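Try this one yourself first.
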């Protein structure tokens, strides 16, 4: 081929690059170059044998590099005189044979790379052959480094590093066998780092790594023992956190509850030791450190998402489960329910509104028919309420339309009316006949205290 042609190792149509088992030189279009011996290690002697020459060569020029650059020139050889002239890349170990082959004594790792032979024939034409030689280092026993050797199951992360000073293929072994597929998924791209998140007890054992190249295979070494101590193995969880109601798992479900009834939610989990519990309502923590939560007097304000969080104090792991609690369909229609249902004189009573409209604009309470003189109070769109002509100073309004009447007296008994208006302009009117019972009186006597109604 012409010396003016621009070729590289990857550009040769017939080139062959050694990447694993043997050190093989690439083959040029006409000139072939074969290393002998084929597998090379530091300190070896090698001859790059040249075949395919015409026999009319006047000179040989060897380069140790990817291009025909003066800086890569190893040596030039004149066939007729046997004169050899070293170049800038000559290390003192190279010698050109009369047949064009190149001898290298006492190989070094730095001798790895691309080699180019350029010939000049009697017609003053040049031919070029390309190749690549790999000198594989003699490998040392690897060591295994670990971030920790005693880990907590399902909490800690295991990181192992196969340490070797030489670039080489790495294989891992677990308890003397090849690494299981599930564990291999945690290997880094170069195979040297093994990572396992939330380590499991079945992953405790002996880990070893092996380094190898085509010349050397080091038996598995650098053993390191991963332990999950017995006292720590028994510390598990929390697992399978669930919310239970009446012995039925309700996690992820919607629980329908009748108005003004009670509900108890239990939090269960598999955990050792027993977990610590935190309950939350619509994302806000509740002051409850027990494994159950009581919801009493179910009303619209208590509708929402209830979450139980279980935390293991030893493993520091946590799990959670949630349910949605809503008023039942029967409770959706709006009605007024007094709490307590049978108030007595001197008590406070709340006229709780069940199923009040969520798109409420304004509401008004009346003591008697819905007329202005009878208006107790009204709530404005701003959320504030204002007193009406019938307000006694003992009535308080709430955002859920409920009305609190404090320190009842017998004259508070009678009809109460609520009028609501939604954003869409829908108007509803409800009424309730409130009964107030006589309160309990206390009279002193010479012998003690007597009670009477």
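Now uncover the answer:
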């Amino acid at each position: 081929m012409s010396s003016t042609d621009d070729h590289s190792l990857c550009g040769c149509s017939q080139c062959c690059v050694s990447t694993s088992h043997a050190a093989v030189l690439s083959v040029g279009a006409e000139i072939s170059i074969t290393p002998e011996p084929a597998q090379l290690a530091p300190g070896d002697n090698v001859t790059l044998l040249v075949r395919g020459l015409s026999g009319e060569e006047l000179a040989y020029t060897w380069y140790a590099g990817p291009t025909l650059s003066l800086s890569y020139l190893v040596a030039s050889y004149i066939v007729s005189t046997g004169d050899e002239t070293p170049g800038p890349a000559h290390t003192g170990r190279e010698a050109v044979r009369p047949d064009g082959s190149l001898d290298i004594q006492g190989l070094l790792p730095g001798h790895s790379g691309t080699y180019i032979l350029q010939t000049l024939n009697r017609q003053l034409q040049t031919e070029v052959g390309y190749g690549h030689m790999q000198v594989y280092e003699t490998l040392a026993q690897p060591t295994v480094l670990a971030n920790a050797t005693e880990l907590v199951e399902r909490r800690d992360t295991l990181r192992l590093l196969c340490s070797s000073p030489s670039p080489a293929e790495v294989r891992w072994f677990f308890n003397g066998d090849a690494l299981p597929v599930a564990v291999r998924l945690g290997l880094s791209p170069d195979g040297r780092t093994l990572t396992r998140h939330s380590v499991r007890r079945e992953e405790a054992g002996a880990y070893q790594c092996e380094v190898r190249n085509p010349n050397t295979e080091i038996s598995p070494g650098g053993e390191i023992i991963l332990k999950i101590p017995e006292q720590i193995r028994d510390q598990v969880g929390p697992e399978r956190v669930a919310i239970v109601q009446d012995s039925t798992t309700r996690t992820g479900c919607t629980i329908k509850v009748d108005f003004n009834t009670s509900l108890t939610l239990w939090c269960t989990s598999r955990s050792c030791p027993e977990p610590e519990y935190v309950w939350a309502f619509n994302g806000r923590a509740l002051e409850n450190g027990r494994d159950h939560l009581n919801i009493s007097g179910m009303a619209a304000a208590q509708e929402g998402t209830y979450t139980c969080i279980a935390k293991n104090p030893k493993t520091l792991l946590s799990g959670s489960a949630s349910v949605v609690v809503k008023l039942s369909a029967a409770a959706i229609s709006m009605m007024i329910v007094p709490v307590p249902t049978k108030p007595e004189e001197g008590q406070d009573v709340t006229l709780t509104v069940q199923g009040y409209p969520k798109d409420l604009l304004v509401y008004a309470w009346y003591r008697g028919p819905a007329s202005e003189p009878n208006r107790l109070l009204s709530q404005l769109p701003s959320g504030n309420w204002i007193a009406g002509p019938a307000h006694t100073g003992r009535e308080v309004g709430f955002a859920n339309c409920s009305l609190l009447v404090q320190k009842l007296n017998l004259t508070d008994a009678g009809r109460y009316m609520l009028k609501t208006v939604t954003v869409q302009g829908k108007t509803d009117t409800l009424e309730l006949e409130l009964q107030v019972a006589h309160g309990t009186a206390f009279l002193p006597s010479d012998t003690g205290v007597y009670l009477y109604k």
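Discussion: The chain has two helices and 36 strands. Residues 1-29, 228-233, 441-453 have pLDDT under 50 and may be disordered.
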